[in-house]
Amino acid sequence: MLPTLETERLMLRHWTQEDLQDFYEYASVPGVGEMAGWPHHTSLEVSQKILDSFIADDEVYALQLKETGKVIGSLGIHRRTMDADYPAENQREIGYVLSRDYWGQGLMPEAAHAAIAYAFEQLHVDVLWCGHFTHNPQSQRVVEKTGFRFHREGTYDAKLLGKTIDEKQYIMTKEDYNRCYKNQP
Question: pTM here?
Answer without folding.
Answer: 0.92
